[in-house]
């Protein structure tokens, strides 16, 4: 009986260690940015200020404030370009007088993150001029 309990405890510990190691692979700082205007991510509005974008899973980004407090997370898709951005950037779309975060571009890559948008935003984006981009001040790998 003691042997079974020891094996179960060892198995639980191994699962915990592998889960922690897997999670640490994805919790990576993508960029730090100072946004000069209020903006929306999903249904939430955030004031102008310094923010950090962190990848917490393969297609999930988290928005944190300057004090590293979690604000929101969002599921993303993939967007590509032919040439890599020299500096990391956030792209905002203007919808009904509000800036909405639409894309996140780390530096040195041709693949970025596209935030899911409601259907009316997609239609609006197809009819609009180019969006607003904000350059980030730092990036991680």
List keywords for this structure.
141 residues; alpha+beta; eleven-stranded mixed beta sheet; 2 helices
Question: Quick recap of the structure?
Answer:
With 141 residues, this protein is of the alpha+beta class.
3D structure, described in words:
This protein is of the alpha+beta class and 141 residues long. It has one domain (26-139). It is built from 2 helices and 11 strands. The chain has helices spanning 2-26, 119-127; strands spanning 28-35, 39-41, 44-46, 49-57, 60-65, 70-80, 89-95, 98-105, 111-115, 132-135, 138-139. Strands 1, 2, 3, 4, 5, 6, 7, 8, 9, 10 and 11 form an 11-stranded mixed beta sheet that branches. The longest helix is centred in the first third of the chain and has 25 residues, at 2-26.
- Proportion in β-strands: over 45%
Please state the average pLDDT score: 79
Low-confidence stretches: 20-24, 119-125
What's the total count of β strands? Answer: 11
Radius of gyration: 19 Å
